[in-house]
């Protein structure tokens, strides 16, 4: 089963990074306020980046790398797509 790391653009211009097996479902959960605490306070606007991995552990490692990036580094990553 593939795992995905995704980045959401929030209405305030910030980014949220997460991982899961169904990005569209997770996005809908975030929009309904049932995702992460961060996205309850910073409403998600759209999915702007997705990476696919063949294991949960690889996805989690990549998520942590992306979360450690600065806002401008995330912006550059998103614009590569």
Describe what you observe in this structure:
This protein is an alpha+beta fold and 81 residues long. 44% of the residues lie in helices and 30% in strands. The protein has 4 helices and 3 strands, in the order ββααβαα. Strands 2-1-3 form a 3-stranded antiparallel sheet, sandwiched between helices. The longest helix has 12 residues, at 56-67.
Give me some keywords for this one:
single chain; 81 residues; alpha+beta; 3-stranded antiparallel β-sheet; 4 helices; 3 strands; globular
* Amino-to-carboxy terminus distance: 23 Å
How many β strands by DSSP?
3
Helix content: 40-55%
How many strands, what sense, and barrel or not for the largest sheet?
Answer: 3 strands, antiparallel
Short description:
With 81 residues, the chain is of the alpha+beta class. 44% of the residues lie in helices and 30% in strands.
Topology readout:
Layout lengths: L2 E8 L4 E6 L2 H9 L5 H5 L2 E10 L2 H12 L3 H10 L1
Antiparallel strand pairs: 1-2, 1-3
